[in-house]
Amino acid sequence: MARVVVDVMLKPEILDPQGQAVQRALPRLGFDGIADVRQGKRFELEVEGPVDEAALARIHEMAETFLANTVIEDFVVRVDGAAAPAESAGSSAGAAAGKAGTK
To answer: Which residues of the chain have pLDDT under 70?
Structure first.
């Protein structure tokens, strides 16, 4: 079984009150030098069978329709592990599964 990770983050233009609360708390806890904090979600999916282009396309569709609110969130789909050949980024604009993407 392979593990596919979907990381979901608020878009940069969306306010992140949870991240701001963490950022304000860090200096009080002795952690200085952090300029910004953004809070997100991580989904780890154990996939039966091979993680090929078709499987990544299904997971990308799942992330776009269920795991992320693409109006306010971006997401990245990636295969976890050293043999991770494919990564896919998504947002409300959409990106094809299997194409490299970074956030």
So the answer is: 82-88, 91-103
Determine the pLDDT at residue 91: 59
Taking the alpha carbons at both ends of the chain, their separation in whole angstroms is 27
What is the pTM assigned to this prediction? Answer: 0.77
What CA–CA distance (Å, rounded) separates 92 from 103? 14
**Dihedral of the CA atoms 62, 91, 44, 25 (nearest 10)?**
-140
Rounded CA-CA distance 99/89 in Å is 8
**Alpha-carbon distances of 89 from 76, 78, 103, rounded to whole Å:** 4, 8, 8
Q: How many CA atoms lie within 13 A of 5 on its CB side?
A: 10
Distance CA 11, CA 38 (A): 10
